[in-house]
Amino acid sequence: MFRADERHPAVWAAKTPDRPAVIDARDGSVITFAQLEARSNKVAHLMRRAGLKPGDHAAVFLENRPDYTLIVWGMLRAGLRVTAIPTHLTPEEIDYILADSGARLLITSQAKRDAARQLKAPGVKTRLMADGEGDGYASLDAALAELPTTRIEDEVEGVEMLYSSGTTGQPKGVRKPLPDGPFGTPVKGWWISAERFGLDENTVYLHPAPLYHAAPLGYALRVLRFGGTYISVPRFDAEQCLHLIEKYRVNRSQWVPTHFFRLLRLPAEVRAKYDVSSLGVAIHAAAPCPREVKAAMIDWWGPVLEEYYAGSEGNGMTTITSAEWLRKPGSVGQAKIGRLHICDEEGEELPVGSEGLVYYSDSPVFEYHNDPEKTAESRNRHGWSTLGDVGYVDEDGYLFLTDRQSFMIVSGGVNIYPQEIENTLLTHPAVLDAAVIGVPNPEFGEEVKAVIETREPHTPALADDLIEHCRTHLSHVKCPRSVDFTDQLPRGDNGKLYKRKLREIYWKDARLP
Asked: For the whole model, what pTM was predicted?
């Protein structure tokens, strides 16, 4: 009935229809594989009825909810490019993403209604609400009611297109080629991660992070593709996660360092109360993990931590086991997708142990949607691609990251790009020049700080005024948590801002992430 290499909901709906695909952590209710198959098929039919064909764009603006993955699966099996929109963005920021992506259909929810009702998005012709209707949004349930639960005739693989900031300060979509081959054929990277982390029919998976991020969404979809069970969590709660691990015998999980910090901060008696022995693999990524935090987690959970280094661009991946990390503390591992190269600014490969830009060759291709300049900047003269990170590779092929060329701030696993914030600060009448950097934060790794040159002598109230100015135009996660003032920012004669000099002031007693 199915090919040997097929992996998708229909396979598991036929094989084990009543097995849980998604478990709602709030009340224990279950969505079976049969229900996942039926609902996602209906969504795929809806995409065709709305006039969307393979390669077209659709978007979801949803909080973490059990049907999130069902909706996205339906879009993907219709061959669409799917953009998951972060829930903390302002209507202005969401409108930009919808317009830039060319999204023609948007699904949101009552929880996001306040922002959704303010969206202009003239290109979005179909607007649906997952749990109701109103404010120009029709009911998704009503739209699906009469549609078939069978597979669409022209079923084909789609792909996520998630957004990060670009050189102009505006978000840019990471555009990957649509998968080729018959529907249900996992690309090489999916097989590698499934084999590396043991994702299969026996998987019970927990990732307590927002699904609009690349890793939470990508791995939740991957777990379901390979027949595992995904536990849907509304938001991260440290003790609840331990409870869920014990209750459902979670054997595969994924985290960011901030989660580890908060888990370790629980009282010893709370940590000891829960049985986490079922955990076979605890994946972590997204941000540098302090060595003492990772060591403490290995001491608590055992050698089950698996770290990887990758980006939404999907141009390469390294991984490292707990045993390897204990031998190579601070490393993010050896390449499993692509070949690693450390290069100088001219694109020449450097000797082993030398620090430089981290590039991948022989790896999947990507581009930045509507931004050929940023795409070109990510390549060197050999055509190898980089995420802008700096590091070195040792004699055994293990990568160590030492800095970020782009000065992207990673706070609690969330990528924050300074230029967008700097552009906003420069619109304030009191600001002559602005720099935004990441500074140490014991819980989140980094937090956003603005360093400002003012036009006139400033008052103590100006710092609060500048933070509020940012909050008027940007989502709160991007806004500075503190503001410092300086007589002159360190700019060269060519106008280049030397952020490393600023960062050294704040990181002199801490390891640069």
From this structure: 0.85
